[in-house]
Design a protein that fits this description.
It is a single chain. This protein has eight helices and 23 strands. It has 529 residues and is an alpha+beta fold. The chain folds into three domains: 3-319, Collagenase (Catalytic Domain) (3-Layer(aba) Sandwich); 329-441, Immunoglobulin-like (Sandwich), CATH 2.60.40; 443-529, Immunoglobulin-like. Strands 1, 2, 3, 4, 5 and 6 form a six-stranded mixed sheet that branches. The longest helix has 18 residues, at 43-60.
C-alpha cells in the first residue's frame, strides 16, 4: 500500500470519531481490524483462516466439560503526559479494574440481578480470571504496572501507544501476558483491541482511554464501572459486537446462537424490552453492546464457548505463563487485603458486617495492622485496628464492625496500612473492591442464604442470616448430579461450616433443605496449582 492511500485510510477511520460525537464511539476494534487488513499483506486471508479454524474447533468440542479456570496475567502500560497529573492513575484504581474483570468474567458481578428473566438463564460464568502480573518477562518481581511518561498528549494512531519509539511502551510477550495500554485517546474513543489468530504480533493487546479505566476515581460518568475493559477484552477473546456491525441492518449478527439478532449498537440505558429485527428484545445489557457501564451485566454461554475456544486455539501458551506466580517475599513488612468475603453480591437489611481476608506478603510475622474500609470509595472511611498473628505467606479472616448501608448498588473497598506499626513496603497489594446490591426488604429463604468464601479451597461458611429455628439437611452434588456429601443436622446456629477441601477443583451445588424450603447454592472449589 502506498503512503498516500494509507493516509487517506487513516483519515477515514479517525474522522469516524466525530460522527459519534453525540453518543461516543465506545469501541474502535472493528475499525482497527479493517486498518490491519488494509495495511498488512495477507492479513485478510489469515483472519478468514482463523475464523474457519475456530468454527471447526467449536463444532468438534461441543461436549467439552472441562471446569478449568483460565487465569490471564495482565501488564498495564500506563502512559501519561508530562503535564497531566490526572492521567497518573493510582495503583489502587488499576487494581479495582482487575476486580471488575474478575467479577464480570465469573458472573460474580452484583448487578447480574438486573438481567431480565428472558436472558438470565443464559448468563454464563466464563471461568476466566485475571491477575496483575507478579513476574516480568525476565523472571523478576513486578506489580504488573508500568508507568511511562510520554510527550504525546493524545494518541491518534492505533499502533503508537504500543511502541516506545512512538511515545508509548513496548509490549511484553503476548504469548505470556495480556498487554493493556491505558492512555489519552482521541475524543470520544474509549478503546480498541486486536483479535486472536495465528498471525498475532508484538502489537497484540488492548488499548483503553484512561478516563474509562477502573471503578474508583473514574473521570467518566457513564463508563465508570470498568466495563470498557470488559468489552475490549471480549474482542481480545474473539467476540464481535452484538449487532455484527451491520450498520442498521438485520442481515448479519455476532455469530452467537443465544444472542438475538440486533440492528444497531445500543447506547445509554434502554428500557427493557427494546426490540429490533423481529426479536422480543435486544440483549443490550450484554458486555459486547455499547450501553453505559451501569446497564451491562452479562456474557452468554454462547459467548463463553467462543471465547474459551479461541483461547485454546490461539492463546493457549498463556496457560504456561509464570506471570501470575509470585516470587518469594521481598520485604519485611508487607500486608494486604487478598479477598472480600462479605459483603457478597446481595445483602439484606440496613447494615452489613464486612469480612475480609488479610495476607502477609512479607518476610516477618505480623501481629498488628490497620484495616480501612468504606462503601462507594468517597464516603466515610472506617478504621479497624487488628491484633492477632499472621505468619509469612499465610492469611487470616477478619470480621469488621458493621456499617450502615444504603439501598441498591454499592462498591465495598478495603485496604491495609501499618503492619506492626511500620510503613507497608508494597502498597500495590493492599487494596480490594467488591460490588454488591442492598435490599431493605426481608428476603425469602432462598435469597437470605449466603455462602462464602466462593470460590473456596477448603471450608465454606453457610450464613443463614436472620433465619432462626433451623432444621434440615445439606447435600453436595457435583455438576453431573452425583451426590458427594450429605449432613443432617438440627441447625441451631445462623452460620454453618462445611469442609470441601478434599473435593477436586470444580463447580458444586449445595442442596439445602431448610425449614421445609429447598435452597440451591453454587460453590466453586478452586485449588491453587
Amino acid at each position: 500500500m502506498n503512503r498516500k492511500l494509507l493516509v487517506v485510510l487513516l483519515i477515514g477511520i479517525f474522522s469516524g470519531y466525530t460522527s459519534y460525537a453525540q453518543q461516543e464511539q465506545r469501541c474502535n476494534s472493528v475499525e482497527y481490524l479493517e486498518y490491519l487488513k488494509a495495511t498488512k499483506p495477507g492479513y485478510v486471508a489469515l483472519m478468514e483462516q482463523a475464523d474457519a479454524q475456530l468454527q471447526e474447533y467449536i463444532s468438534t468440542h461441543k461436549n467439552n466439560q472441562s471446569r478449568t479456570i483460565i487465569t490471564i496475567p495482565v501488564v498495564v502500560h500506563l502512559l501519561y503526559h508530562t503535564d497531566s497529573l490526572n492521567q497518573q492513575l493510582s495503583n489502587w484504581q488499576i487494581a479495582s479494574q482487575i476486580d471488575a474483570l474478575n467479577e464480570d468474567y465469573r458472573r460474580f458481578n452484583a448487578d447480574r440481578y438486573k438481567t431480565p428473566s428472558q436472558f438470565d438463564s443464559i448468563g454464563a460464568d466464563c471461568e476466566i480470571e485475571f491477575c496483575l502480573a507478579k513476574r516480568d518477562p525476565n523472571g523478576n518481581a513486578t506489580n504488573g504496572i508500568r508507568r511511562i511518561v510520554t510527550d504525546t498528549s493524545v494518541f491518534h494512531s492505533f499502533s503508537d501507544p504500543k511502541f516506545s519509539a512512538t511515545g508509548g511502551d513496548d509490549a511484553w510477550p503476548f504469548a505470556d501476558y495480556l498487554n493493556i495500554w491505558v492512555c489519552p485517546l482521541v475524543f470520544p474513543l474509549l478503546g480498541y483491541s486486536t483479535f486472536p489468530s495465528n498471525s498475532m504480533t508484538i502489537d497484540d493487546g488492548v488499548v483503553i482511554h484512561y478516563k474509562a479505566f477502573g471503578r474508583i476515581n473514574c473521570f467518566s460518568k457513564r463508563y465508570n464501572v470498568g466495563r470498557t475493559a470488559t468489552h475490549e477484552i471480549g474482542h481480545w477473546f474473539n467476540l464481535s459486537h452484538i449487532d455484527g456491525d451491520d450498520n442498521g441492518g438485520c442481515n448479519f449478527d455476532d455469530g452467537i446462537d443465544d444472542t438475538p439478532l440486533e440492528d444497531i449498537h445500543r447506547f445509554g440505558c434502554p428500557e427493557f424490552p427494546s426490540p429490533s429485527c423481529s426479536n422480543v428484545s435486544d440483549i443490550f445489557m450484554d458486555y459486547m453492546d455499547y450501553t453505559n457501564d451501569s446497564c451491562m451485566n452479562l456474557f452468554t454461554f454462547g459467548q463463553k464457548t467462543k471465547m474459551v475456544s479461541a483461547f485454546n486455539l490461539f492463546r493457549s501458551s498463556i496457560l504456561s505463563s509464570q506471570g501470575c506466580t509470585p516470587l518469594p517475599a521481598q520485604y519485611a513488612w508487607d500486608i494486604g487485603v487478598s479477598k472480600i468475603l462479605n459483603p457478597d453480591e446481595f445483602i439484606y437489611g440496613d447494615s452489613v458486617t464486612p469480612v475480609v481476608t488479610i495476607h502477609n506478603f512479607g518476610i516477618q510475622p505480623i501481629s498488628t495492622a490497620s484495616i480501612y474500609y468504606t462503601k462507594n470509595w468517597k464516603s466515610a472511611v472506617n478504621v479497624f485496628n487488628w491484633h492477632g498473628l499472621v505468619n509469612p505467606d499465610e492469611s487470616v479472616e477478619v470480621t469488621l464492625p458493621k456499617i450502615i448501608d444504603s439501598t441498591w448498588f454499592n462498591l465495598f473497598c478495603a485496604w491495609t496500612k501499618y503492619p506492626n506499626g511500620m510503613q507497608d513496603a508494597d502498597t500495590s497489594n493492599d487494596f480490594k473492591t467488591r460490588s454488591y446490591i442492598v435490599s431493605l426488604k426481608f428476603p425469602p429463604i432462598a435469597d437470605a442464604v449466603n455462602v462464602y468464601p466462593n470460590p473456596t479451597s477448603g471450608v465454606v461458611t453457610i450464613d443463614f442470616g436472620e433465619i432462626i429455628d433451623l432444621k434440615g439437611t445439606i447435600t453436595v452434588f457435583n455438576v453431573l448430579g452425583q451426590q458427594e456429601h450429605v449432613r443432617m443436622d438440627q441447625l441451631s446456629l445462623s452460620k454453618f461450616q462445611i469442609d470441601l477441601g478434599n473435593f477436586p477443583s470444580g463447580m458444586y451445588f449445595l442442596d439445602l433443605r431448610v425449614n421445609d424450603n429447598k435452597v440451591v447454592k453454587k460453590v466453586i472449589v478452586q485449588h491453587e496449582l
